[in-house]
Design brief:
Helices cover 29% and strands 14% of the residues. It is of the alpha/beta class. The chain has a domain at 25-212 and 333-348: 3-Layer(aba) Sandwich (Rossmann fold). The strands form two sheets. The chain has a seven-stranded mixed sheet, sandwiched between helices. A two-stranded parallel sheet has the order 8-9. Helix 4 links the parallel strand 4 (97-102) and strand 5 (144-149).
Length: 350
């Protein structure tokens, strides 16, 4: 399936005259709503198998990508060998898996988690990720991996954890690290994320380069959502076909008196009002922390948040409103994913 991001957002540069080798398949771990996968699919990669523990995210993925390729799995409990066998069963023709992509849940590191600590059990998923990529390299010689997380993983309190993670990821791969901001790639959002790209030592010439920022003007909230119709307000029992314009263009009924005045308090996290002429704050919400629309009279709809992430119009999220909030908050912005996929493709498959 060839999914393209919305018009106006970052797209990769024109292909070089050298004919590229057809990019291979990738295994997508912690796939969520599929933001990272969209970028790789747009660059010609296939995703024969995607894995997540969230049932709503799995439904979202399979509703937007043909073949029922996403499955619900607990990566903490499955062995790397069992996962490898599942990956073999998913591969057909030229979609053999030569790379692994994914961002383990980041709540243990995220600034938004006031109780975060280095020993959070969720942090062990990052170590399991390293175990999986090394096992796949041993079994089939995968050429690369892409790891994504919040930049807070670099904090001083996480230094021992990150040192160990780097050591394990470096067992069979040369690793390259960089923090990227989505607004540098045509996404109307300040969203900083930390990426590690691992290139198998057997094929690496130690010159991998991360994508560079687009030279286009920075996109603003106005560029993304100005002029959209008013969203549908949530009611119990609502189903997607009842929501006009787009099945995700819905939000909570505004109840606070602050929405009547349009004036929001300074500070705090519950009433952050976006500005039309600037990129959005990071799309990473709690249940009552969805950013306030620039007009000040309501919170953003899920669809508006999707546009601030750079998702294509034809994409839709499934599950309850809270499940959709989680999916869009955790997603990698597809234009950033595509820029990274383009860099990997040029480096390994051209």
């Amino acid at each position: 399936m060839n999914i393209k991001v919305s018009e106006g957002f970052f797209m990769s540069s024109e292909p070089e005259e050298i004919s590229p080798i057809s990019p291979p398949g990738v295994l997508s771990l912690f796939c969520g709503a599929g933001g990272l996968d969209i970028g790789f699919l747009n660059q010609g990669f296939s995703v024969p198998l995607a894995v997540d523990f969230d049932a709503s995210a799995i439904r979202t993925y399979n509703q937007n990508h043909p073949g029922e390729t996403a499955i619900k799995l607990d990566l903490l409990t499955i062995s790397p060998e069992d996962l490898y066998q599942k990956s073999l069963a998913s591969q057909q023709g030229d979609n053999n898996i030569q790379g692994i992509i994914g961002g383990p849940p980041c709540q243990g590191f995220s600034r938004g988690n006031v109780g975060r600590c280095p020993t959070d059990p969720r942090n062990q998923l990052a170590m399991k990720y390293a175990e999986i990529v090394n096992h796949f390299h041993k079994k089939s010689g995968i050429k690369f991996f892409l790891f994504e997380n919040v930049p807070e993983i670099l904090a001083k309190k996480n230094v021992d954890f990150l040192t160990l993670l780097r050591k394990r990821l470096s067992k069979n791969f040369n690793i390259y690290e960089k923090e990227l901001n989505a607004c540098d790639f045509g996404v109307p959002q300040n969203r900083r994320r930390y990426f590690i790209v691992g290139i198998a030592k057997s094929v690496d010439n130690k010159s991998f380069e991360f994508p560079v920022a687009s030279n286009l003007p920075v996109k603003t909230v106005s560029d993304a959502i100005k002029g959209l119709p008013e969203p549908y307000f949530f009611q119990r029992g609502t189903s997607a076909p009842e929501i006009p314009y787009h099945p995700n263009h819905w939000t909570m009924q505004p109840k606070s008196k602050r929405f009547s005045s349009g004036e929001m308090p300074q500070g705090g996290r519950s009433f952050i009002k976006l500005a039309w002429d600037k990129p959005s704050r990071t799309v990473a919400y709690g249940n009552r922390e969805i950013h306030v629309h620039p007009d000040g009279h309501r919170r953003l709809s899920i669809y508006e948040a999707m546009q601030l992430q750079g998702f294509p119009f034809g994409y839709s999220l499934w599950g309850s409103l809270s499940a959709q909030v989680k999916q869009i908050s955790n997603a990698v912005a597809p234009p950033v994913a595509e820029a990274l996929a383009n860099s990997v493709k040029k480096y390994l498959f051209t």
